[in-house]
Amino acid sequence: MNIALKPEQAQFVQQTIDAGRYQSADEVISEALQLLERRDREYLEWQEQAREKVNVAIEELESGQGLDGETVVVQLRKKLRQRRL
Fold it and tell me: CA neighbours within 13 Å on the CB side: how many for 51?
C-alpha cells in the first residue's frame, strides 16, 4: 500500500526520526495507527457507557425517580455558592 503524506506530515515524521525516538517512518506510522486504534476503541467504550447511563436515567424518570428542572437548578446553584466560599 502506498500512502501519500502532506508535506507537513512528512516533515513531522522525519523530525520524529531525527530526534531518535523511532528508527524509521514505518515505526512512526505503526505507532500512530496503534494510537488511533486505541482512541477509537476508547471512544466506542465511552459511547456505550454514555448510552447505558442515558438508558438508566430514562428508566428512573419513567418510574418517577427523576427531579424536575427547577429542583436541579436550585441544587446546582447551591453547590456553586458553596464552592465559591
Answer: 6
Sign for the CA dihedral angle at 8, 14, 16, 22 comes to positive
The pLDDT tens digits of the residues spanning 69-80 come to 898 999 999 999
| Domain boundaries of the chain, sorted by first residue | 7-84
pLDDT for 12-67, tens place per residue? 999 999 999 999 999 999 999 999 999 999 999 999 999 999 999 999 999 999 88
Closest by Cα among 64, 27, 83 to 75: 83
- Roughly what angle, to the nearest 10 degrees, separates helices 25-62 and 7-18? 110
